[in-house]
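Data availability (excerpt). The following record was deposited with the supplementary files.
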Amino acid sequence: MLRAVPDGLVDSGSFFTSLWDAGVVDDVAYTVPWYAYTYALVYRADLARKAGVEAPATWDEMVPFFKALQGAGAERALGADNGWDVFNGQDAAMYAWQAGGSLLSTGGKWTLDTPAMVDALEYNASFFTSGAADIATPTFLDAQPYFVAGKTAMMITGPWVVGQLDTAAKKDGWTASHVATAPLPAGSSGSVSFSAGGTWGVLAGSGTPDASWKLIRYLTEPGTQVAQYKAYSSLPAVIAAWDDPAIKDQPLLGAFLTQLKNTRTFPQVTTWQQVATRIGKEMEAVAKGTSTAEKAAANIQSYADSIGTGAK
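Predicted structure:
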């Protein structure tokens, strides 16, 4: 059990909304955001320039963009996450939000067999059926070497990748001359991603709650958040910290800031990871053509209903 965040400890409005909301249950805050991340597009800018195309802004532009990157020399356009697991389920959640859907009703019931989920599953499958992504590869550890080598030309991923590509390329400055970022393409309801990161809380049985809360308040001060970014490349959960030149002057981070302003939290129920894993498995069947998106959405709903939402 966690203690409620004391009134006045921090300003909830200083954080990205979805990050703060992730720690709120029944209108009571139990955690304070620490660092943030979300997903955006990371792509080979050099190949896009060669093809004469710009990053896709909508779903309809995605596959044509992929084809252009392949025409410019990429073996596959998208280095897709294909573990067919909880992480793929998270992707489907993003796409369902972008299509105007939700995952839970206001009454706490799963809402997964919907037109929005069908659209999300078909959209994801189009990456594979178009030939832009490979069903079999790359695996998670292959993603960056493939990207650097031109075996793939885009990833839908988090900001940590940006700081790792020079190492993968074994060349300082490779990222600056070869890579660009962009927010996720918009579906019928816009460009929506998920928010994630780290949070702080204080256990109900803590013997030193006052000292713990003071530490948490210090860790959420803009100056501390900037220092943490400089030391560990952890992106700030406090919006004001993004105005510091150390972060603001990093052009590849701009897309992540834009995206963090338009994010949602995954369902705050204990069975979400199980449901997300099932979504991932159903996504595989649709991508491989062994199931339809309509059947997959129905299967996901049936499974989610069978396990419920768990205890609060």
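Summary of structural features: The two ends are 11 Å apart (CA to CA).
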